[in-house]
């Protein structure tokens, strides 16, 4: 592995029959994969790759398997990004062995990885927990307590707002570390910036609906229905965005592998439970309409 003048890192698949200069392998028995998110050629350079565990491990009774490693490095850069480029003689090297069973659990997260984890946690809490909570409060509590709106706006804006904004900012900051651009798919197409824009618009829309009432209205204003539909749309898009985050972005850009299967199970349960809870709350609509009609008639 070596750095290039453009900042990229080259990983060349090579092998050797012993402690000699390795040569390019067209079909290596184990293929190494460069971690573009964890490798850097600037500052304190770090070259990171993953490779399947070798079958040639030494097994110690009652202990985890040991993986033998041999390494070498040189001071002369090949001067080309071509993986077939010849390399000069090595300057130093060595050998080591390590446990292959669970050893990676003790490796601390990098600052970039911690930022991604924080982004994921805050975004999930904000979009998948707090926003649905605020919607369910409006659906269930409004026919029983006049304080429903206070609880609703605190959940949707007072608490969710800071959590969501910080989570999204961390996502942008983390994506900048790996060269993401503003129009990359996770931010727009899946749906990213659109989701953030809809959330801000929904908060403003809700405030307008609450404080600016149509005069001489004889029925429930159309804007109230639009507000509810937009809110449900945001929650639906949020659940989709969360899934693309943990199923695609996480394994591709964190270097931490796939998330546990329990995450996907929890997501599937939640996308079923939320609509069911909201649908049950629709049973209070007749009572809500009667209360609103009585209020309009004074």
Feature tags:
298 residues, two-stranded antiparallel ribbon, transport, transmembrane, three-stranded antiparallel β-sheet, Cyt_b561/ferric_Rdtase_TM, electron transport, 2 domains, Four Helix Bundle (Hemerythrin (Met), subunit A), mainly alpha, single chain, 6 helices
Strand order of the largest sheet: 7-8-9
Q: Can you tell me the CATH topology of the largest domain? A: Four Helix Bundle (Hemerythrin (Met), subunit A)
CATH architectural arrangement of the largest domain: Up-down Bundle
The pLDDT mean sits at: 82
Order of helices and strands: EEEEEEEEEHHHHHH
Whole-number total of structural domains: 2
* Alpha carbon gyration radius: 27 Å
Describe the main β-sheet briefly: 3 strands, antiparallel
Q: How much helicity do the residues have?
A: 40-55%
Shape: elongated
Report the oligomer. single chain
Number of strands: 9
Distance between the termini: 78 Å
Identify the CATH class of the largest domain. Answer: Mainly Alpha
The DSSP helix count reads 6
Find the structural class using helix and strand composition: mainly alpha
Low-confidence stretches: 56-63, 102-106
Sheet-strand content, in percent, reads 5-15%
